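re: the backbone from monday

yeah here it is again, tokenized this time
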């Protein structure tokens, strides 16, 4: 009788341990991982997607003054936009240096929130002004640079210390077609360098 009392708890403990070892771990998995097919509906034949790319050391150094700069677009009266759609453009430059020999051209991709009235404009995201966005232009002051698109490339100039380039742009306020209201009209655009 005493032997049975000792063996039964040990046998039950062994079953509990072996059952938990066989259970599928679900911690950290999404609902699709833990219960495939239930949220996706009926499953059928599919295909494959190949992702190709490369990690390289081909890049230039963006100058400290270009990495984080503020472009002052000035103060404009609300009444200005009653007879015009754009303000005077303000220049700014992004400079790179120490470009390796493999980099011959460089361009910029500007990213940021797009204006809801005109998707070619950078949205004013800080301040109470409405009805305007920020328009970006190439160095010629005529060719627009769309948000999310790559600018025209610029040749890298070679010197003893490596390659360098100055990418010149212009920015201004442009009406987006809705009613203009007063207030601060600030925005932020992140940019990445594109090397060819």
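seq for it, each position gets an aa:
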């Amino acid at each position: 009788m005493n032997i049975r009392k000792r063996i039964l708890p040990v046998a039950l403990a062994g079953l509990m341990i072996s059952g938990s070892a066989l259970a599928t771990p679900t911690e950290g998995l999404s609902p699709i991982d833990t219960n495939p097919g239930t949220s996706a509906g009926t499953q059928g034949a599919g295909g494959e997607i190949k992702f190709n790319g490369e990690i390289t050391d081909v890049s230039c150094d963006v100058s400290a003054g270009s990495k984080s700069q503020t472009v002052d677009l000035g103060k404009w009266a609300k009444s200005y936009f009653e007879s015009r759609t754009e303000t005077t453009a303000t220049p700014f430059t992004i400079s790179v240096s120490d470009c390796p020999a493999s980099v011959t051209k460089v361009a910029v991709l500007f990213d940021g929130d797009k204006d809801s009235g005109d998707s070619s404009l950078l949205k004013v995201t800080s301040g109470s002004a409405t009805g305007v966005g920020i328009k970006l232009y190439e160095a010629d002051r005529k060719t627009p640079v769309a948000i999310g698109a790559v600018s025209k490339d610029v040749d890298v100039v070679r010197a003893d210390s490596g390659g360098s380039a100055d990418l010149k742009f212009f920015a201004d306020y442009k009406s987006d077609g809705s009613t203009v209201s007063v207030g601060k009209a600030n925005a932020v655009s992140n940019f990445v360098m594109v090397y060819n």
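The radius of gyration is 30 Å. Confidence is low (pLDDT under 50) at residues 1-24.
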